[in-house]
Amino acid sequence: MEFKPYQHNAKYYETDQMGVVHHSNYIRWFEEARIDWMEQAGIHYDEMEARGIIIPVIGVSAEYKTMTHFRDTVEVFFHLDRYNGVRFAMSYQVRDAKTGELRCTGTSEHCFLAREGYRPVNLKRHAPDYHAIFASMLACQPELPPAR
Amino acid sequence: MEFKPYQHNAKYYETDQMGVVHHSNYIRWFEEARIDWMEQAGIHYDEMEARGIIIPVIGVSAEYKTMTHFRDTVEVFFHLDRYNGVRFAMSYQVRDAKTGELRCTGTSEHCFLAREGYRPVNLKRHAPDYHAIFASMLACQPELPPAR
Amino acid sequence: MEFKPYQHNAKYYETDQMGVVHHSNYIRWFEEARIDWMEQAGIHYDEMEARGIIIPVIGVSAEYKTMTHFRDTVEVFFHLDRYNGVRFAMSYQVRDAKTGELRCTGTSEHCFLAREGYRPVNLKRHAPDYHAIFASMLACQPELPPAR
Amino acid sequence: MEFKPYQHNAKYYETDQMGVVHHSNYIRWFEEARIDWMEQAGIHYDEMEARGIIIPVIGVSAEYKTMTHFRDTVEVFFHLDRYNGVRFAMSYQVRDAKTGELRCTGTSEHCFLAREGYRPVNLKRHAPDYHAIFASMLACQPELPPAR
Asked: Are C67 and C26 in contact (CB under 8 A)?
């Protein structure tokens, strides 16, 4: 499996009066990267929702290393750390696209829920096609680069 | 009818690297003020949605007069300009809460739609209680202060 | 002069509970398109700021025609309507990238200010290179497609 | 020392198409609460910036327990966990204001930097008045309620 890191160009409205990108936006970039990764793997998030499955975030973390400025393009690298059919966890690295300099590392945790009623869903039973993708991803993906 | 202007305290994340509040946030403040105004009038937007009616924005405009800084509290004054059961239009003034200085004027236009199917809804027929509120609002409200 | 419309892929965090992109985001897309247009024309907004010139928004408007959903890619077409050295005005059209369907039309007005002191700046005197670009843009650009 | 939890009323534009508040907004609410806490303690963040000190976020985490809906008012409780003059760490709890139900727990870490040059600043030396406030806060504040 070969995945391309997700690219994002920092917007003017993402900056704050400190003159750099506001820290909350990295959490949104993780989401953009996560959705892009699923798409590259063959899972379209809007189709998943149409099939009645949502993926709420149950935890997120970020460590900010260096600052991102307006017009910088960053690359978000992602890694599936854990997956068991009902939950999964991911890691992220945000790097400057030109220099490779590390901007931010992060993690997120998720579960699968039925859109109606919010009860837990196990992909093994309810969406074996998605399960196969997550499982093979967990087995075959490359490691993230060292976080520096 | 007596309405209190809506108060908003400018957030750090609403600023951009120009050192002032990003212009797109005023459009969000109009929405906050509109929902607050409806609530003061007795229409709770979440109840309206629960009854199957949504109020999309079909037009919006803003003129920016002076800049709002982080920690400034602004007051948003609102006025129902037109209403006919299927559409309405509003005006807004954003003023500094301390000095009264005009920050921004604006307008918005809306229609009522059924949440399912997005077909137009006439409040006169489908929600006469809401219609009565809009109609009496149109008849009785005070004018906005002069825009300076 | 040949310009490519700006492309934006609608993000999950740009939707609201109506299930479509929140109307305030189109105002941000106008900005993204405006900055991209200037860049295509040879004006880098961060360089302009570094040279002490900022471009505040003094007015904005939008008319919403149809709804944009998560994962839709839109194209933002732009047109320089007026320019006189101290102010300019633009028009925008947001269209679905696949179908060409019109999502939104809009306008914005701007002035040039000195970053320090916020006094008006005339590009003719203070940045003749930028002036030449704006002036030739005004003379040579193609019209927007009809707004339907 | 007596502090009031920070109150926030969930906005329509903070929801996403899942029908609840998007998870990235809690990170912003932490910031709102942090700034409010400092203000209650006598430190005005805009004054601090005017004195040349900024407080970047170097880490943040959140665990989402239950969902916040449009119009819900939440209370954000905060606690200063560590402080040594150059860095500090905080904890947060977001609870429904009516029921007290726990929505989210979180943490953030910060350092003090000179606005110009971004070199580390020690409050003990450069802002003893702020240091005194942080130090007495660390000594005297009440614990957060148990996280359930």
From this structure: no
Given a cut of 80, is residue B132 above it in pLDDT?
Answer: yes
Within 8 A by CB and 6+ apart from C147, the residues are: C93, C102, C105
Q: What is the pTM of this model?
A: 0.97
Give the three-state DSSP class for D96.
strand
3-class state of residue D7 by DSSP: strand
- Residues C79, C97: Cα–Cα separation, whole Å: 18
Contacts A23 to D, Cβ<8 Å = 27, 56-57, 60
Q: What are phi and psi of C144, to 5 degrees?
A: -70, 155
Task: Decide if D54 touches B, using CB distance below 8 A.
Answer: no
Is B17–A20 a contact, with Cβ atoms under 8 angstroms apart?
yes
Between the two ends of chain A, the Cα-to-Cα distance in Å is 24
- Classify residue C124 by burial, with Cβ atoms within 10 Å: 0-12, 13-18, 19+: middle
pLDDT in tens, A90-104: 999 999 999 999 999
Closest by CA to C90, choosing from C63, C64, C65, C110, is C110
Which residue of A lies nearest to B19 if distances are taken between CA atoms? Answer: A17
Asked if A102 and A78 touch (Cβ cutoff 8 Å), the reply is no
Chain C CB contacts of B23 below 8 Å = 27, 56-57, 60
Put simply, the answer to whether C17 touches D15 (Cβ < 8 Å) is yes
Which pLDDT belongs to residue D4?
95
DSSP string, C89-131: EEEEEEEETTT--EEEEEEEEEE-EETTTT-B--HHHH-HHHH
Pick among B11, B12, B16, B20 to test the A interface (most A CBs inside 10 A):
B16
Pairing between β-strand C102-111 and β-strand C57-64 as defined by DSSP bridges? antiparallel
**CA B6 – CA B77 distance, rounded (Å):** 7
Res D43: pLDDT? 96
Looking at residue D85, the DSSP 8-state letter turns out to be: S
Mean residue pLDDT of chain B comes to 96
> Residue B81 catalytic?
no
Chains contacting chain A through 3 or more C-beta pairs under 8 A: B, C, D
Inter-chain CB proximity A44 and C71 less than 8 Å: yes
Per-residue model confidence as pLDDT tens digits over C12-40: 999 999 999 999 999 999 999 999 999 99
CA distance A55 to A70: 30
CB contact under 8 A, C27 and B31: no
B72 interaction partners in chain A (CB closer than 8 Å): none
pLDDT above 90 (res D2): no
Per the CB < 8 A criterion, the answer to whether B43 and B133 are in contact is yes
Distance between CA atoms of residues D15 and D68, nearest Å: 9
Measured between alpha carbons, how far is D83 from D91 in angstroms, rounded to an integer? 12
CB atoms within 10 A of CB B4: 10
Q: How far apart are CA C104 and CA C96, in angstroms?
A: 10
Distance from CA of C40 to the nearest CA of B (A): 22
For D139, the enclosing helix (H) or strand (E) is: helix D128-140
